[in-house]
Amino acid sequence: MALAHVLGFPRIGAHRELKFAQESFWKGASDEAALRATGATLRARHWQAQADAGLDFVTVGDFAWYDQVLGTLALLGAIPSRFGFDPKQLTLADYFTLARGSKHHFAMEMTKWFDTNYHYLVPEWTAEVQFDGGVDWLHDEIAEARALGHKVKVALVGPLTLLYQGKIKSGIAHKLDLLPKVVAGYQQLLQRLHAAGIESVQIDEPILALELDAAWRAAFAPVYAQLSGTAPALLLTTYFGEVSEHADLLRALPVAGVHLDLVRGAGQLEQIAAGWPQDKVLSLGVVDGRNLWRTDLDQVLSKLKPLQAQLGDRLWVASSCSLLHVPVDLANEPKLDDELKSWLAFATQKLAEIVALKLALNGKAAEVEAQFVASRAAQASRRSSSRIHNPLVQKRLAAVTAADAERSAGFAARIAKQQAKWQLPAFPTTTIGSFPQTAEIRQARAAYKRGEIGHLDYLDKMREEIRDVVEKQEQLGLDVLVHGEPERNDMVEYFGEQLWGYTFTANGWVQSYGSRCVKPPIIYGDVYRPEAMTVGWSQFAQTLTSKPMKGMLTGPVTMLQWSFVRDDQPRETTALQIALALRDEVCDLEKANIGMIQIDEPAFREGLPLKSRDWPHYLDWAVRAFKISAAGVGDETQIHTHMCYSEFNDILPWIAAMDADVITIETSRSDMELLDGFGQFAYPNDIGPGVYDIHSPRVPQVDEMERLLRKARGVIPDARLWVNPDCGLKTRGWPETYEALENMVLAAKRLRETVEQERKAA
Predict the structure, then answer these.
(1) Is 16 labeled as ligand-binding?
(2) CA angle, 606 then 608 then 612, to 5°
(3) Does 644 belong to an annotated binding site?
(4) Residue 333 to residue 417: CA distance in whole angstroms
(5) Residue 420: what pLDDT?
(6) Which of 226, 230, 271, 232 is nearest to 253 (CA)?
(7) What is the rounded distance in angstroms from the CA atom of residue 643 to the CA atom of residue 649?
(8) Interatomic CA distance for residues 346 and 324, integer angstroms
(9) What angle do CA 518, 522, 524 make, to 5 degrees?
(10) Is 17 annotated in some ligand binding site?
């Protein structure tokens, strides 16, 4: 009999209950007991949903107060020693200091989890790091689940993935130098789980979907030989891509079973299943954990049936990866129209899909026939619906030429004209775009959406906010201003709401990091811009100042990556449709005398395929999409872009090929390490490395920012160096924002004085 399980469930709650409890705790409005109570309520609710759906286990260990990697470090006792915390006595306040920083500590570095929009806290590897055990939170959660009567499967980040995803800070030459310590820590943990009666542990090793070198590949067999001896049954899980090159290794590993992602690696099944060992489970991820389209149950069942004859009860049916990456429950979406809603499945509905497949395999098809009928109807509806295809978009797409992706002159000629026009000082200061979204701003937007205030009243409130932001920037002495984006709920959602081919949910929240949740749009059809989206706001803001006002847009790749994208055409086709819509907006901004336009692409690196052999195709169309969005303007119009929280060094030639006049990047959490690659590559255009971390409430002092700028000068020529924060300031409060920007402007002024003194001395 086939079994059913999931690799993880969304932890934030259907209505972001965890987010609000976290933020209340951070503000001091509630205590740790209240936060823990919210966590316990959510866990119980999510376990019950899994049990009610008919899964054979509930997954414990997928919950995290901020991030599962940080949670694993806290569990093992491997937190950075620089914070001075005792891992065994770690409080939630300490834990959040690791993630968010404090007045005395800068936060741990944060970056993207593989090719998702989820961010994790990067482990810091030193010779001194210990894996001697830490908090008991996982063991407490196991006890909670058992007390509620659930059969438990524990989920852990695997030891090799944990090591691989960290960063060496000092004292070791290679991450694998820490392997004996890591294995000992996991042995201790697994032995404790075994002694507590845990029968099954899911151990996640998604690095198997990467192109691992020989040393990492060779580490798997001995590591799992050591872990499997006295451990519960280990299900080694891989996801986010195919792992067929490791087929022999996976068959031979001394584990109880292996999980494959058949959504991202559909072609690997035949090769890996052939000759599958008689003593191993094969878990197949056939329900998409990263997108929300309804599963074609007939198609999946036809793929699974031959395997059931081969595997029997060693066949497990599952989500492709954790359901962390999709919203919680479609039942909370009363405003979606019936046709569109019939095409979708959120996490709760995906549980039912998994169980329907299990029951159909186990000879109980009659019990789930209604689900199969609904699945067939949804697939047929999507194929035939007239709302999917737009002939005008198709015609324009067919007419695009190579010339549409090129500016009329090269960077050297453009920058000379731009400098003559703007007359900016050395090391010009700016921000990334958004300013704090106050309660008043959010209330006004919500009241407008509910129809409680009219359009003119809403316009007045937003213009009042823009006036205030422009005035503050003038007071601070910033050189290039922004309008602050008070009208924008989200950098993707705002644009998607104004484009055809997009739709939106009311409660389709997904965790990005910590308490930061996003509500990704759904791209269901051809994308088209019916009218200007930002011109009026930017034009109004420019009337308030003589300084340059940047127009602010979200780029085509990020619009794609941070949406749930239609799966009935290639992603690059959808990206190009978005690029053409943005091109129209860029040209309209220029016509409105907005001479600096920022097209943000924070997800550009995130979209990179996990295997380098697949990079060229992605990078070619991603660069082309960006250039098409930007290339319709004249030489004097300065195009900016922004990227953050990613490693860029391996794709710098393509970033340079995007040919933005100015790029701003996140570098402060890495102490400017990320900038080194730009210097070694000799990045040709202007660049603004972030000089302070906006994801922490900590306000850095002037000397700290000045030190980072001096490091940047060692990499980037003075004439091409800008000064800015790491990212947008939407999530921060005004007092800390003002103080931090005040310090940043002063640091830039000091640097100008230093350069002038150097010039005179020379």
Answers:
(1) yes
(2) 145
(3) yes
(4) 51
(5) 96
(6) 226
(7) 13
(8) 11
(9) 170
(10) yes
| Catalytic-labelled residue, pool 5, 46, 325, 695 | 695
Rounded distance, CA 706 to CA 668, Å? 12
The per-residue DSSP string of 40-94 comes to HHHHHHHHHHHHHHT-S-EEES---SS-HHHHHHHHHT---GGG---GGG--HHH
pLDDT tens digit sequence for 625-645: 999 999 999 999 999 999 876
DSSP string for 674-721: HHHHHHHHT--SEEEEB-S-TTSS----HHHHHHHHHHHHTTS-GGGB
- The response to whether 704 counts as a known ligand-binding position is no
What pLDDT, in 10s, does the model give residues 448-487? Answer: 988 999 999 999 999 999 999 999 999 999 999 999 999 9
**What confidence score (pLDDT) does residue 673 get?**
73
Nearest-angstrom CA–CA distance, 425 and 572: 40
499, 527 contact by CB (below 8 A): yes
Phi, psi (rounded to 5 degrees) for 599 = -115, 100
d(CA 629, CA 577): 10
Is residue 517 a known part of a binding site?
Answer: yes
| DSSP assignment letter at 493 | H
The reply, when asked if residue 606 is annotated as ligand binding, is yes
Question: Contact at 8 Å (CB) between 324 and 7?
Answer: no
Dig out the tokens for 32 from the structure. Answer: 């740790």
Instruction: State the pLDDT at residue 103.
Output: 85
569 — alpha (psi -120 to 50), left (phi > 0) or beta?
beta
Give pTM, 2 decimals. Answer: 0.89
Please check if 621 is assigned to a binding site. no
Residues 6+ apart with CB under 8 A from 356: 297, 368, 371, 372
Angle of CA points 440, 443, 444, to nearest 5° = 85
Q: Is 485 annotated among the ligand-binding residues?
A: yes
Task: Evaluate whether 233 touches 257 at the Cβ level (below 8 Å).
Answer: yes
Token pair for residue 682? 């000799």
DSSP-derived letter for residue 668 is T
Which amino acid is located at 148 in the chain?
Answer: L
Cα separation, 206 vs 659, in Å, equals 33
Q: What is the pLDDT of residue 646?
A: 63
Distance CA 400, CA 581 (A): 13
d(Cα 97, Cα 103) in Å, to the nearest integer? 10
* Phi and psi angles of residue 332, each rounded to the nearest 5 degrees, phi first: -90, 20
Residue 9 token pair: 């469930």
Rounded distance, CA 507 to CA 332, Å?
6
| Calpha distance 599→582 (Å, rounded) | 9
Q: What's the confidence (pLDDT) of residue 690?
A: 87
- How many Å apart are CA 477 and CA 748, to the nearest integer? 11
Active site residue 105: no
731 residue type, one letter = T
Rg (C-alpha) for the chain, rounded Å, is: 26
DSSP 331-357: GG-TTS-HHHHHTB--HHHHHHHHHHH
* Site of tokens 């300013």: 435
Q: Sign of torsion, CA 442 445 451 457?
A: positive
CA distances from 610 to 207, 209, 239, 658 (A): 9, 7, 11, 21
CA distance 590 to 594: 5
How far is the C-alpha of 301 from the C-alpha of 319, rounded, in Å? 14
Q: What pLDDT does 461 receive?
A: 94
Q: What residue ranges of the chain have pLDDT lower than 50?
A: none
Structure confidence at residue 645 (pLDDT): 60
Handedness of CA 208, 212, 214, 216 (dihedral sign): negative
**Is 587 within any annotated ligand binding site?**
no
Cα–Cα dist 542/530, whole Å: 24
What pLDDT, on the 0 to 100 scale, is given for residue 669? 67
